[in-house]
Amino acid sequence: MMKKRFLSFALVMFFMLSVLTGCFSAESSNPAGSTEQQAEKEVTIRVLANFSDAAQTKSFTERLEKFQEENPNIVIDDWSTGDEAVFNDKFKTAVAQGDPPEIFVNYGGVSQVDYAKNKIMADLTDLLNSDKEWSDKIPASFFNDWKYSDLEGVYGIPYASFGIGIFYNKDLFKQIGSEPPETIEEFMDVSEKFIAKGITPLAIGDKDIFRGGHLFSSLSMKAFGSQKTLDLCSRKAKWNDADMLSLFQLIKDMQDKNIFGQNVVTLDYNAEKAAFESGKSAMHMDGTWYFGSAVSSSIADQIGFIPFPYFKDKPEFQKSWMGGATGAFCMSGLAEGEKKDAAEKLLKFISSEEHFKYMWEQTNGGFIPPMSLEDLGIDQSKVPELTKSFLEKFSEVTDLRNEIGVYDPMSQLTTKVREEIQGLFAGNTPQGTADNIQKEIDNYEANK
Amino acid sequence: MVKLKKYYCPVLLLLPALLIHTILMVYPIFKAIYLSFFSWNGIMTSEPKYIGFNNYMQMFTSEAFLRGLYNVVIFILSTFLVTMPIAFVFALIITSKIKGSGFFKTVFFIPAVISQTAVALMWTFIFYPQGGLLNNLLTYAGLSGWINDWLGNPSIAIFSVVLVNSWVSVGLNMIILAAGLVSIPEETYQASRIDGAGYLATLWYITIPMMKSTFNTYVVLNLIGCIKAFEIVFVMTRGGPNGATDVPVTLLYKYAFQYNYFGYGNSIGTFVLVAAILITITVNRLFREKA
């Protein structure tokens, strides 16, 4: 009996010790060895990127594999995803645990300042200054979304630029005998013709609420330019003033005319793209990241690009676009020692000219680098026609701003505006929509 | 001393499991309750700010949360008014001696084994206002006036989601009720038949009263399921349009992961936990009193 008990006790102790040693072995199993052993010691860094286009995701993965090949002692744990919600969940969970990935994508703006203040995003000034030949290749203005007025430093390295415009189906426009619209007024005219033919003019899949957000910000840029964005974010203007109300009303009017189709709230982004690529929708509003998909779609030769239409009575904002730096690669401010060195090495690798060139080529121009194509030595004859037409228009832009909420100190404003626009699509009034957003801002200001 | 010695071995054997359970389950629960009294942006390196019961006060006065509770009430009502009668009838069918009861058992249970995400997506397509199966069927049936945007219309979206939830949960609830039905001794039915009781009388005076403990399980599981509903809502509508189908757990997700109000999110999580515990205690007590 005693023997049996002893045996059970020994087994339990063995099991517990195995568990405990297992828990701690990662930290303690590699005592200081020889210099050679240290040099070969593997270091793992985690990467969390988010590219909505499959071609971009694939190319980025290939680049990480290339880096891995060149640096066998650096193991890359790739957390990247193509879904923005999954990306946010992964990132925020890691941040809440105090263990952010060493390299991650960030979309910048004032709302991100807390990450910079709390060392989730490292100040990259020293790294940028240490290799001017590399860092000077990216124009200084692209860094603006990762610089903060009340905090010294630069917190991200922008990896691409974008603009929001309209992709259109040339064949469908031929069928109605119209040219693609340059102004909102022309857009309304061609929309009527498409509706008469049973074709949705511009399908919007606002189940993914960023669709309505992009539509609204694009309209705002064309109606009031970037000054309105700045006034709203500095509280000089209100979301329920006459200007904003007129935009909400315009969206409502467009919806009432069936311009966005009947499934606005239930359709998602992928279904919206599918509607365009299957000829059910004549136009598709999207960012430059869509080039990759457009060029490889079954109607590739039928797709053209036009800037987002401007208001005829506001020609001064014709060249105001929603756009900017798509995002930046950031480094965790909590990374230290070998991890920090490895992360810096990878950061430079994925923001090098070679990287941008590779991404451009593999995505058929769906990845617009933050420097000119000439600087990258890209053969202009190989640039797809669709991308060429975008670049031509994009080079004329005089006023470029991201979505309004990006510049607002209230970090949840982007989501709030997007949700309220979804509410507008679902039946809320323009006044109710505007008032709800303003109420949220007033609450925020009162509790600050 | 001798008595204590006898417990050493079982305690040591249980200890690893207990440790893992404490670290992965108990600690996070207490941590969530603790954080619900703080304002915290979800950044580990930033200091949470103690704000007492502010999160709770804000929660109970928030229109969004009250709407979430209202939606939970609709979930609960559907559990009793839609799911339970159907599941009970299905349970009666599969436990009866009719031909093909095995076939029915499989067919009725299929929705419960399909992934909730797949079910939610399938129903989303069925509910599409333009080109969706439901509206097409209504058109063919000459009921065009009934066509609606089932998930896009804020006043009916929650009912669409709730019905899908019932469709999913009927299978599992049928099994729970069937387990109660087969546990009733055959002799009781034989005795009632000798006394001249018909089918309905047997059902009312024998079957239902003898399934009290089964109904207890059914009520507890479903009430808790309703208060922590998430997957179906999130996949079908993500709480939209504009919060019309939000329930407490989608709000928890939204406030914590989209708005970075992790303290507030934790207060909603704590509410769900406390509500689930209270529901379990109350329902168990009610059923015990009636027993």
Q: Regarding quaternary structure, how should these chains be classified? A: heterodimer
Chain pair sharing the greatest interface: A-B, 44 and 38 residues
> Which outline of chain B best applies?
globular
Average pLDDT for all residues of chain A: 85
Order of secondary-structure elements of chain A? HHEHEHEHHHEHHEHHHEHEEHHHEHH
A few lines on this structure:
Chain A has about 450 residues and is an alpha/beta fold.
Structure description:
The complex is a heterodimer of chains A (448) and B (291). Chain A is built from 18 helices and nine strands. In chain A, α10 (210-233) packs across α17 (413-425) and α11 packs across α18. With 448 residues, chain A is of the alpha/beta class. With 291 residues, chain B is an all-alpha fold. Helix content of chain B is 75%, strand content 1%. Chain B contains 13 helices and two strands. Chain B has helices at residues 2-35, 54-61, 63-95, 101-113, 116-127, 133-140, 157-182, 186-194, 199-210, 212-227, 231-236, 248-258, 262-290; strands spanning 38-39, 49-50. Chain B has a two-stranded antiparallel ribbon with strand order 1-2. The mean pLDDT of chain B is 88. Chains A and B meet through α1, α4, α5 and α17 of A and α1 and α12 of B.
Features:
heterodimer; A: 448 residues; alpha/beta; nine-stranded mixed sheet; 18 helices; 9 strands; B: 291 residues; mainly alpha; two-stranded antiparallel sheet; 2 strands
SSE arrangement:
The complex is a heterodimer of chains A (448) and B (291).
Chain A: H1 2-28, H2 35-40, E1 43-48, H3 54-70, E2 74-78, H4 84-96, E3 103-106, H5 113-117, H6 125-130, H7 132-135, E4 157-169, H8 170-176, H9 184-196, E5 200-202, H10 210-233, H11 242-256, H12 269-277, E6 281-287, H13 291-296, E7 303-307, E8 320-331, H14 337-349, H15 353-362, H16 385-394, E9 399-401, H17 413-425, H18 430-447
Parallel strand pairs in A: 1-2, 1-3, 5-6, 8-9
Antiparallel strand pairs in A: 3-8, 4-6, 4-7, 4-8
Helix pairs in contact in A: 3-15, 10-11, 10-17, 11-18, 17-18
Chain B: H1 2-35, E1 38-39, E2 49-50, H2 54-61, H3 63-95, H4 101-113, H5 116-127, H6 133-140, H7 157-182, H8 186-194, H9 199-210, H10 212-227, H11 231-236, H12 248-258, H13 262-290
Antiparallel strand pairs in B: 1-2
